[in-house]
Amino acid sequence: MATPREETIEGQTTLVVPAGTGLPRKLDELLSAMTPFGFSYREDIVPTGTSVRCTVERDHRLALIREGRWLAYHGLSVNAGMDRAPSGSLVPVVRRIPPGVLELRLEMCRDCGAVCVRDVSSEQYFGARPARLVNRETGETRVAPAVARRNIVLGWYSGARPGRREYV
Ligand SMILES: [Zn+2]
Question: Where are the alpha helices (DSSP H) in the chain?
Fold first, then answer.
């Protein structure tokens, strides 16, 4: 298994988990794996190819290109920010996403073509109380689980070499 490494993405220190424990190595492979589920959103854009503002300002102008599902066979480890250890030093917090079908949003940079992959799956929100739904007419009570939508960046596909976008 490859070792996670730290990189600076969008000006933030990000723990990057190399292919094998994360997303497919190439964007084409991810899209192929999503195709059997069907896409709830599908819109192709052609990046302008200019990436000065991306590399210099680290600012990508993202446009939604796909919404759909993907089966994560092995689960994923993603960076969930930094936390302070008892020693006082900052340590990266890794969030484990269990194996299963994930709802993904793919956004492409209009300039350099880099693709940001977000997990927007619904999940039981820890600490949230289930909602009680009471029908005022009948008095019938239903309990709805508290559900929240994740919004976690799983990774980026580099736009530097179009057609050969790799998980970074
Ligand atoms: Zn960009």
Answer: 27-34, 52-57
pLDDT, tens digit, for every residue of 6-33? 656 556 665 555 444 578 888 999 999 9
CA of residue 161 to ligand 1 center, whole Å: 12
36 C-alpha to ligand 1 centroid (Å)? 29
Residue 139 CA to ligand 1 center (angstroms) comes to 54
For the segment 110-134, what is each residue's pLDDT rounded down to a tens digit? 988 889 999 998 876 555 566 677 7
Total length of the chain? 168
Distances (CA, A) of 25 to 20, 59, 93, 95, 151: 8, 23, 23, 20, 21
